[in-house]
Amino acid sequence: MAANSLQPAQHHHSFTESDVETENTKLDSHASPPQKPYSSWNRLHHKASHKLVNNFLPAYFVNVMATGISAAICYHFPYPAAWLRVVGLILWALGIFFFLCGTVLMVISASTVRGNLVKFHTDPKVAPFMGCFAMGYNSMVNMLYFVTGPSFIIGIFVLWWVSVFLCVYTAVVIFYFTFLVKTSTKKHFSPENFHATLLLPIVALTVTSSAGQLFAMDLPHRNLQVLTVVVSYVLWANAMAMSFIVLSLIFYKYLVHKIPNTTMVFTTFIPIGFLGQGAFSILLCGNNLHQLVPAMAAKLAGLEFTHNMGQTLSEAATSIATVLMVVCSLTGLFLISFGYFNTCIAVASVLTKVLTKNPNPEHVCTSGPFEGMIRFNKGFWAMTFPLGTMAISNSELGKMYGMETFKAVGAVYGVATVVVTVGCCLGFLYHLARDVVECFTEEAH
């Protein structure tokens, strides 16, 4: 799930006829018999292994995130339809395929290519995208819960704890070794190098938090429900605190150095992700507390403040639950509102690259039906997950309070997410086909 605008620049090398001729010349100089040129299949294998193994990047998991959240949106669309659930299942299957392929490639790359495992943990341009692995995994688990429901709830609970480990590992261990540890080989960051990708290890916390809140009330025991809600809230609280710190640095960069260049402009969508996902998590938390507190009214009898409320224990529990739900809802609305603002900033940033008087022909189409548009690159994937988080948070708020406006806004965000995801999948297939054709046409020439 990689994004060109999200990954460091790499120099890809493929075997061409000139390479073969050079190699044959060297062989001739050593009086060796001439070698046959590399076949098309060999060139394809060389290019694939070079790009997918030697230069594997955790950013490749962004397509898992995109298909996963698009599947969830279709499966639980604000205005449901049977065919949308089918589309959701198809996207989920595609996401599982991407996730399994990406995981296998990551393991092979980390175990066979020297230095890659360290790079995945310490390189500021690569390591933040390990958060995509955790979020992609969680997206697949969420859809599994939607499909199986309470019938597989213990299995979902176990898989969720794996997600907790992954998100804490990326948000604490990888973040620490990437950005905080001082080593002889690391250089200090300059303000212009603060990109929104720094948020990725932290956003994983909000994704796991919302997943826990999503299934908590289906757990069979009250203690497990309370444990899941509390752990999920702790993850959410840490994510919010850390994200706003990083976001302040990003906006400082925007104010001083202005919006990113064309290759990085789609990263302006990333801050929307933690706002939308954070809102979704805290809204679910409020809903869960509204159910948990009255059910645990007997345990409130030992709290001193409940004796001074002038109410019966049951009434006091109901009042506390209502207050908690309202506070969580207002917090969620606050995050959603800031998400609207960041959506406007991100869309405006992209439009400035499209509507500029002197576009860069390297990044903008100069002819054809897409003339004037930004050339498709893997950075387009950066739009999908953030827009999807706004879709599910708006839809949840609308469902909780029966407000059609938020359901409609959630539907708009949801349609945008699915359209962009499908477009990115088509672009991915186009570039894949082009690379394959190039390998076979080189021999013909």
From TrEMBL:
<dbReference type="InterPro" id="IPR004695">
    <property type="entry name" value="SLAC1/Mae1/Ssu1/TehA"/>
</dbReference>
<keyword id="KW-0813">Transport</keyword>
<keyword id="KW-0812">Transmembrane</keyword>
<feature type="region of interest" description="Disordered">
    <location>
        <begin position="1"/>
        <end position="38"/>
    </location>
</feature>
<feature type="transmembrane region" description="Helical">
    <location>
        <begin position="152"/>
        <end position="177"/>
    </location>
</feature>
<dbReference type="InterPro" id="IPR038665">
    <property type="entry name" value="Voltage-dep_anion_channel_sf"/>
</dbReference>
<comment type="similarity">
    <text>Belongs to the tellurite-resistance/dicarboxylate transporter (TDT) family.</text>
</comment>
<keyword id="KW-1133">Transmembrane helix</keyword>
<dbReference type="GO" id="GO:0000319">
    <property type="term" value="F:sulfite transmembrane transporter activity"/>
</dbReference>
<feature type="transmembrane region" description="Helical">
    <location>
        <begin position="316"/>
        <end position="341"/>
    </location>
</feature>
<feature type="transmembrane region" description="Helical">
    <location>
        <begin position="126"/>
        <end position="146"/>
    </location>
</feature>
<dbReference type="Pfam" id="PF03595">
    <property type="entry name" value="SLAC1"/>
</dbReference>
<feature type="transmembrane region" description="Helical">
    <location>
        <begin position="408"/>
        <end position="430"/>
    </location>
</feature>
<keyword id="KW-1003">Cell membrane</keyword>
<dbReference type="InterPro" id="IPR051629">
    <property type="entry name" value="Sulfite_efflux_TDT"/>
</dbReference>
<keyword id="KW-0472">Membrane</keyword>
<protein>
    <recommendedName>
        <fullName>Sulfite efflux pump SSU1</fullName>
    </recommendedName>
</protein>
<feature type="transmembrane region" description="Helical">
    <location>
        <begin position="90"/>
        <end position="114"/>
    </location>
</feature>
<feature type="transmembrane region" description="Helical">
    <location>
        <begin position="264"/>
        <end position="284"/>
    </location>
</feature>
<feature type="transmembrane region" description="Helical">
    <location>
        <begin position="198"/>
        <end position="217"/>
    </location>
</feature>
<feature type="transmembrane region" description="Helical">
    <location>
        <begin position="57"/>
        <end position="78"/>
    </location>
</feature>
<dbReference type="GO" id="GO:0005886">
    <property type="term" value="C:plasma membrane"/>
</dbReference>
<feature type="transmembrane region" description="Helical">
    <location>
        <begin position="229"/>
        <end position="252"/>
    </location>
</feature>
